Amino acid sequence: MTITIYHNPDCGTSRNTLAMIRASGEEPEIIEYLKDPPSRERLKTMIAEAGLTVRQAIRQKDTPYLELGLDDESLSDDALLDAMQAHPILINRPFVVTPKGVRLSRPSEVVLDILPNPSIGEFTKEDGEIVRPKGLTLD
User: Fold this and answer.
1) In a domain? residue 136
2) Pairing of strands 101-104, 95-98
């Protein structure tokens, strides 16, 4: 089974998501999308399969979003995709692709919905937040 994470190692959410995938017993293909961005078609497909609009998949914080005028609601999806291709930092992260689906894993525990073995037990994120997968109760 192939699991792919479009990862930014400088992002805590992305690191937590990767740790959750590994806690499930899988070693994913890791694509550092800032160095090796997905093709325009791949990005468009991932966004659609995740059930998002292109605008929902664009990252605003710590990016040239405003400087590029991407807050203009009249911009087409094609214009936004072009900007994401030209500036991969605009791609929100982390996208995770598994045979069970595609998710933008924000928050990181969203990834559990598409893992073949989501029973990772209690998981503590980098910021100390504790994640308990659905159905996990404390005795």
Assistant:
1) no
2) antiparallel
Report the phi/psi class of residue 25: left, alpha or beta, with left for phi > 0 and alpha for psi in -120 to 50: left
Domain containing 61 equals 4-131
Percentage of the residues of the chain whose pLDDT score is greater than 90: 83
Query: Residue written as tokens 């192939």?
Result: 2
Torsion from C-alpha of 10, 11, 17, 21, nearest 10 degrees: -10
What is the distance of C-alpha 13 from the center of its chain? 9
User: H helices within the chain, ranges in order?
Assistant: 12-23, 40-49, 77-86
The active-site residue out of 3, 11, 70, 96 is 11
Number of structural domains (the chain) is: 1
pLDDT tier at 113, thresholds 50, 70, 90: very high
Task: Clarify whether 86 is annotated catalytic.
Answer: no
